[in-house]
Each structure stands twice: as structure tokens, then as C-alpha cells.
User: What shape does this take?
Amino acid sequence: MALKGIKYLILVLIIALSASCTKRDAPLPDNQVQFEVNEQGLPETTNDITVKLRLSRPADRDIPVTLSLTPTQGVEYITDYSITPGVAGSNMIVTILSGSSETSFTLTKSAGALFYSDDQIIFKIISSASPVTIGTQSQLTLKFSEIVSAGASITINGGGSTYGNKVFIDLSANYQTAIQRSKWDLGFYAASAEWRVTLNSSSAMMAKQIDKNDLSLVTAADTIGFSNEVVFSQTNPTTNSLAYIDYPDGNMERTAIAAVSATPSENKVYIINRGNGIGTPSPLRGWKKIRITRSTNGGYLLEHADIAATTFASLEIPKDEKYFFKYYSFETGLINVEPEAKKWDIAWTYFSNVTNFGSGEVPYNFQDVILQNRNVQIAKVLTATKSFMDFNENDIAAQSFVTSQTGIGSDWRSGGGPSSTPSVRSDRYYIIKDADNNIYKLRFTSLTQAGERGYPSFEYVLLKHG
Assistant: This one.
């Protein structure tokens, strides 16, 4: 090889090695600790509250964080409230464990304690162990009254790249509730007017009715072919399986399980595909057979068993007007999932949605879907019409609100799937009217945290107090 060619090759190798070293050695941004929100309220009817602190990314060692407490004069520790893990003087220490990205503490009212509406405690992060630094949201005000938040910036605790949580968000309370999305199976409509049962749509569940009324008479022979039919397929989806999911807009007339009849003989057996768990690859959750009737006590009566079992478990699920749904897990029984009906507005989740490849709608799993509660209305505004900053209370009347639970859905992001990387759409935002007629404007600001999916962020501002 000519000398000139050798010199050129050496130069190329040097540049390539330099670039790879630069990329490998590029420092990560600071890992910061901060409160999940800057304000929370503890209403008179609520006895305790959990406060969370978050890191930008999981810690590689245990990180003790020291907080100061400044209560309103007359609000005293032990006499009026207690904190777990505990307070020493005017400070407390919480620890974020190695491998985790969050920690929390719980404040509980003392028995018989009375509070004025302006009583509060200010918590402030005053130090954290190296290499963690203190983030911008370093102070939280906890009020001993119900609040209507004027707005905030929130990072959703979705559980990371496996989308492990379903997260319910109450805008007015400035609060989010995360639950592992494989923790339940069925949701039972809890209000008195409807007798409907939903599937866990965040685990790709499906249900198919068979023409039998007795679980003990159902065998594997009744499920022949179901493993190819009652299943999500991202590679070969079919319109035939659309009937086996709850339609994603939340229409209670289009659930996979028919309305529970007052006539017992009309309630058939369903074969349930419990879908997928959490992980990469995601584990299969297996199959069940179920039958649901109305109980003599005014609730639901659920019977369930494994497909080949000749005996079955039986349990009553009561109605409860405070909630839209009460939830049941085949492993653990009744379980709390979503908050009370008026205590959440939107939810972020992995979701059993539909898409159309040209021959009709087919079931299709989506990530980063935003659902709205049944008592919430949403309108979309494009920035070409009016910017987020300029939109104000006077603009509300011109908006067209929708009640479909997928009013936002996946509309807030673009791309995704096997062929493209998704990103936040910056050309739109949303107007949200909650159950108390508080109206907010909301826009999404990030799809990731420290480069990891499953931690999207948004900001919102109160436009009108209900």
C-alpha cells in the first residue's frame, strides 16, 4: 500500500477511536433528587398521605436524603401527626435504596387532632449523599385541607421501559397513584345503574363466551383453537379478535363480557386469556374460565377456575358508589386499583387499543396511552390556532369537548412501533374539565427521563376554578 494510503488509513482509525471514546466517556447528567410535586393536600376526611421523592435515574448505592420540616405554629409532631420513618427534631432522613429511583414517607394524623384550613408543613430537601444533587423541585408544601392545584410540572412514574405501572393522576390534588399493571384481572362496574365487567386492558386480556353455564362442565376441549384466536398478534392481527377485547373508547355497550343479566341462566361461561405480564420478553399470564351472575346481596358473584379444574372459587364483589369500578385479581382477590371516582382525571398506561391496517380495526397493543376518567371532558387545541401560553379562560367556550376515554389516547405523541422512535407532538395541547368543573390546560413536555421510556412529563395550568 502506498505511504499516502497508509497515512490516510491511520488518520481514519484515529478519528474513529476518538469519536468512540468521546461517546463512551461522555458524562451522564447529574442524578438529581426532588419531590414528585411541589404541593399536596390532606383533606379533613383523609387520615394519611404518602409523599414521594424521585431521582432522575436509579441509584447505584443507597442515598440518604435529609429533609427539614417547618410546620405552622401550633401543629406539633406526635400530638397532631406522625411520620414514618420518623422525625428527629426539625429534620428527618429518608433513604433511596440502591437500584431504585424513588422513596417515600407517610404522614398520618393523630387520633382526635384538629386542623385549621391554613395549617401546613413545609418540607425541604437540605442535603443528599454524593453523587446525587438536589433538583429544582426541592420544596413541598403539605396543606391540611383539600387543595385545587393552580398547576405544576409532573413526571409520570410509569415504571420504566417495561411500562410496568398504570398511573392515575388527579390534577386538582397534584397527585399521582401508580399500580403495577399486572396486579388485577377484572373490573366490576360499581355504580348501581350498570352491570358490566371489564378486562385489564393494560395486560392485553381477552375474553370469549362459550355456550355453557356450568364451570365444572368446561374442559380443555371447549377451548380448541383459542390459542390462535383469542390472542393479540402484533405480526398477524385479525379483525376476528376485535370482539374479544373491551373497545378502547370505554363504551360500556362494547365490553368483551356481556352485561350481567338478572336471569342467571343467561349468564354464560367465558374463557379468559389473561394476556401478558411485565418484562422483556413479557411472560404469559395464562388462561381462566369464569362465570358472573348477580348476587343476592346486590353485588356480583364471580366463579373462576383454571381451564381443566372440576371445582371453582366463588366470591362476591359488592357495589360501591364512591368508585366507578371495583377490581379483582385471580391470585389475591379484591384489590384497590383506581382511586375514588372524583379523585383522578387522567391515567397513563400500556393499553389494548385498536389500529387499522386497511382491512378494518384490529386489536393492537400501544405504549404511552393517556386515558380520561368517565366524569372528565377533554378538548384538543393546535398551537397554530392559539399558543399554549396565550390560551386563557375566555377561549374555553369555543372548545368542543369529548368524553371518550381515549380523547387524548396516543394522539399526544407521534411515531413508535417497530419502524420509528416516538416523540412528543409539540403542535398541540389539551383542555381538561374535571368532575368538579375545574378546567386546566395541559401539554406534554417529554417522553423519557434520562433517556428511559416509561417516565413521560407534562405541565398544566388552572384556567378556571370549578
Summary: Confidence is low (pLDDT under 50) at residues 1-24.
